[in-house]
Recover the amino acids of this structure.
């Protein structure tokens, strides 16, 4: 794998390879919680132009557990505020020895530009770009669903027959987009539930069913319900019902969660708006996988960095995305 830019072009074999290597990483970590020497001598740069807690720290932990050196770059407080371009910033970091660049950027397509422009030779991982994609979030979500559904026998399996409902602000969500492509590539049935104003215009071209009524979607007994963060910072008043109405019609509370089959899981990528898209009771309930997703994220990102920097040489011709 040369880069990981999206899940839309990630094929089933490559996706399963990442999930299976992540299983190996998780097993190794649970057996002997110590560093692997695999990426000794490699340098991973976390290049973050937008805020992050989970993704940035998770990539840092993943790289360190594989013995790579890590350089963390945040646009705030850097020469970006003096007008330095993405090209000059990336080339400066490559001159310090970056082998892989993990980039989060407010502009959709910035990771692909970095990977294909010839500005740098490092492998590029998309850690979230605008409203486009967040591929490692979708991979850790798929990993979590697979592990919960199939337990110890999950290695090598796809998600055929698994039913996932994704609820909320689909319009602004790169998490929703990456999950739609990845989960359907892996054979899952995906239903989106959203207020009509928060559904993207081109959704008819997506391999999903769209509903506007959350209770109708939950009545089908999905295996996983993934609540999306309402992105108030990207919201136009024209799109959004009042917070009270949103919470009443599209929020997941304990009463709604209780209508689900006993083995259904409740997911959220974080950060959560407690009391808006998800109640505290639902977020903290035994069926919630919110913290499990965070833990799994480290294993998945270890797998991605491993396949990018130490994976099979024959894979290097492909983009992996
Ligand atoms: N889920 C996610 O991307 O969280 P952060 O913004 O904290 O990285």
């Amino acid at each position: 794998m040369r880069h990981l830019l999206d899940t839309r072009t990630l094929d089933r074999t490559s996706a399963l390879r990442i999930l299976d290597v992540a299983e190996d990483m998780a097993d190794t970590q649970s057996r002997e919680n110590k560093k692997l020497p695999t990426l000794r001598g490699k340098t991973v740069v976390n290049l973050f132009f937008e805020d992050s807690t989970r993704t940035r720290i998770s990539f840092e932990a993943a790289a360190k557990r594989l013995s790579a050196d890590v350089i963390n770059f945040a646009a705030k407080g850097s020469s970006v505020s003096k007008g330095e371009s993405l090209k000059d910033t990336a080339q400066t970091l490559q001159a310090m020895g970056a082998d892989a660049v993990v980039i989060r950027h407010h502009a959709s397509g910035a990771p692909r530009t970095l990977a294909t422009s010839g500005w740098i030779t490092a492998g590029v991982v998309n850690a979230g770009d605008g409203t486009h994609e967040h591929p490692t979030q979708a991979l850790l979500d798929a990993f979590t669903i697979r592990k919960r559904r199939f337990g110890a026998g999950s290695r090598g399996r796809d998600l055929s027959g698994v039913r996932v409902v994704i609820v909320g602000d689909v319009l602004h969500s790169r998490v929703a987009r990456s999950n739609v492509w990845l989960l359907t590539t892996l054979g899952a049935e995906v239903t989106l539930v959203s207020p009509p104003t928060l559904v993207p215009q081109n959704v008819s071209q997506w391999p999903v069913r769209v509903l506007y009524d959350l209770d109708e979607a939950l009545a089908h007994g999905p295996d996983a319900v993934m609540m999306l963060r309402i992105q108030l910072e990207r919201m136009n008043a024209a799109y959004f019902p009042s917070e009270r109405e949103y919470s009443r019609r599209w929020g997941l509370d304990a009463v709604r969660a209780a209508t689900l089959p006993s083995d259904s899981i409740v997911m959220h990528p974080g950060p959560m708006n407690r009391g808006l898209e998800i109640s505290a009771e639902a977020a903290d309930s035994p069926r919630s996988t919110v913290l499990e997703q965070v833990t799994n994220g480290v294993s998945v990102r270890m797998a991605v960095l491993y396949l990018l920097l130490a994976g099979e040489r024959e894979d290097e011709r492909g983009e992996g995305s």
In short: The domain at 12-132+294-317 is CATH 3.40.50.1370 (Rossmann fold). The chain has a mean pLDDT of 94. Residues 52-55, 128, 134, 137, 269-271 surround phosphoric acid mono(formamide)ester (CB under 6 Å). The chain has two domains: 12-132+294-317, 135-291.
